[in-house]
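FORM 12-B: Structure-to-Sequence Request
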């Protein structure tokens, strides 16, 4: 599907409190177009709780339940159960949470909802930090990245949350990116058509958190995929497939760009280049990505 063929439906309406260049808002527009207005969204503490605008106003044209940081999946489970009791099985329930509320604070409730086979879509928009509360490190923050709690650069590599979710053997798991709107739209539409728990993770490059110009949001997402730092894939009924450029990288039809082509534009990695290039840590990042793709090849080719 071409972008021009996407539905005209707009559920993100004027009045948003998003930052300029906000990837979450871009992702929300695409997700809402795929889900339609017969949806209910559960949002924990995260940037989106601010993007909605201040009560009594809202910038979302669907029902939204705001809930505690750790409780998005539990809240969505309750909404789904109530709708089922009322015979409203055609309403889509979606939990929309950041990486902090998914990788860290919300993982227990999420795992429980998946184990209970809850019929909902859980979407993590991953900006790789706790952006709303001041750009602190999360389990999704990449190795060597600056945050306000890792001022010399994070010393650990990020969790592979998608692989953790796959271990639950749910019907559908996918990774997407706001820089690839058609891919994201198709994945949300597919998830909507399925019964049971579905998980989609969207890479959401954050201008203030990653320290790049607000006009470069899409470019940062594109480079993340082209360097292999982020993979576009689907895991459907225990079968893995890769999408777009990630598929071409996996099959060796195109070469990954060096990760330096991605990180050099982000101020959060600026300390790796000034006062002189930190060759050792840049190589460690590159080696980690190489190992990730070797694991993908050994498992899925």
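FORM 12-B RESPONSE
SEQUENCE OUT:
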């Amino acid at each position: 599907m071409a972008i021009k063929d996407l539905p005209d439906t707009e559920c993100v309406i004027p009045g948003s409190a998003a930052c300029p260049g906000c990837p979450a808002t871009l992702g929300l527009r695409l997700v809402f177009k795929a889900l339609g207005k017969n949806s209910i969204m559960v949002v924990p503490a995260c940037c989106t709780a601010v993007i909605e605008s201040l009560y009594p106003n809202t910038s979302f044209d669907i029902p939204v339940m705001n809930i505690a940081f750790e409780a998005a999946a539990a809240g969505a489970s309750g909404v789904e159960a109530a709708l089922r009791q009322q015979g409203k099985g055609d309403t889509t329930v979606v939990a929309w949470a950041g990486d902090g509320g998914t990788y860290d604070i919300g993982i227990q409730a999420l795992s429980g909802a998946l184990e209970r086979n809850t019929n909902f879509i859980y979407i993590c928009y991953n900006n790789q930090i706790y952006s709303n509360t001041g750009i602190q490190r999360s389990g999704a923050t990449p190795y060597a990245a600056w945050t306000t709690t890792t001022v010399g650069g994070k010393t650990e590599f990020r969790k592979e949350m998608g692989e953790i979710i796959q271990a639950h053997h749910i019907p559908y798991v996918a990774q997407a990116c706001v820089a690839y709107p058609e891919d994201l739209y198709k994945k949300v539409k597919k998830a909507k058509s399925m019964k049971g728990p579905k998980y989609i993770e969207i890479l959401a490059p954050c201008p203030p958190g990653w320290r790049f110009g607000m006009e470069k949001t899409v470019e940062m997402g594109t480079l993340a995929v082209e360097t292999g730092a982020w993979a576009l894939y689907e895991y459907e009924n225990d079968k893995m497939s890769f999408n777009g450029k990630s598929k071409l990288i996996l099959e060796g039809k195109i070469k990954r760009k060096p990760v330096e082509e991605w990180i050099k534009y982000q101020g959060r990695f600026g300390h790796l280049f000034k006062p002189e290039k930190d060759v050792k840590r840049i190589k460690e990042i590159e080696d980690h990505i190489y190992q990730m793709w070797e694991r993908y090849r050994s498992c899925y080719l």
